[in-house]
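Q: Here's a chain of 421 amino acids. Please give me its 3D structure as tokens.
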Amino acid sequence: MFAPRYRDARPPGRRNPLAVLTSGTLVLGMAVLIGSPDLGPVPVGDVPTPVLVAATGPLSGQPAPPTPPAPPADQAAPTDQQVPADQRVPAAAPRGPEAAPVSADCAASWGATGPPGQRLAVPVVQGTDVCRPGAVRPVPADARCTVQVDGAGLAKAVDTAKPGDRICAKGRSTDRLTVKRSGTASAPIQVVGVGDAAVDGITIKADHVVVDGFTVKNADAPAIQLTGRGITVRNNVVSRPTGGDRDGLRFFGSDLQILHNTISDVRNEDGAHADCMQTYATNTPASTNVLIHSNRCEKIENQCLIAEGPNSREGDGSGKGRSSGLTFTHNYCEFGAAQAVMIDNVQDVTVTRNEIVGEGAKAFGFDNGSTGARVSGNTVAEEIDYEVGLDSSSRKGYQGPKVGGAPWNPGTRPLSRRPAG
């Protein structure tokens, strides 16, 4: 099934930047998990706030509360049943070995600063900077599993999951991981790969689900696809998707988080137009409130992100709803098309603090009513002609560097092949 395209060609005479391959990250050491779902929020401001993180225990960024004095002998301490539920304080977890400080930005990049019940732990791998874009390996061990399975038992465990389950899987499954059961906002279903966990692709069609820590090699494209509300995919490694348009990841829905995934070796083979990540609104829901944080797209022969709204320039969008509120931040992007990121009819997009590597005409294109864009703090390779391309219909509310030209190359226009239906 084919998805929407921007067929901007690389400017004539430019060599393919992917001829020189970047090296991956070497990961060494032992992995442990830190954090707790009961922890308080980490403040996020304009200046990252250091957050001291222990291998076990709170990820709050604040000192542990002092131990209250013991009550007089003739006064019994109140029980949980005697204290209103909204005033109860969870028991402190035992302290583990000290870990390196983690900034509030880094904590947010791992989903560790959300509402109670939705906070995820920040992995710590000794000798590795977990705040850099991309997945970390080895995948940390997990002591909070409600279900533990091997690859052969993963599908059954997922098919019978209930809200609040944390399914931990080891080993390889020869099947595509497909999640169709929903959790709740306060009790998501979490499917976690540990050790060498691998699957033949990931599909999520549910709400309030977390999929974390899997390796996906040579899977049918898109290697990862998520459709729903309140979905988080993080710390997955995808390499060389096959078939279809060979996209690494597609996303559709609202309140989505795409965090610390590594997607590589995405190739234009057999007429494909292979992108690292993509969303559109043809026969799928418009996407809103999407956070794409600290991912690594490397050796991508087209764009790192293409996002098209329901009234895309191709004219074959659904015309229903509004795609908006997408944040693309702290990502590494090595691209081979005319632009790294293409935004078509998506409003209120934030693009900040990314590293963009390639030789295209521009880093970011905003087209067809993509108003309210905010661009700042990005590092753009010298070989790229200009940072931002923007058309007149997208100028309203724009904040960012000086516009260098059109969002598409002169003499070219978007060309799409849409899925049927």
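Q: Can you summarize the key feature?
A: Residues 141-394 form a domain with the Pectate Lyase C-like fold (CATH 2.160.20.10).
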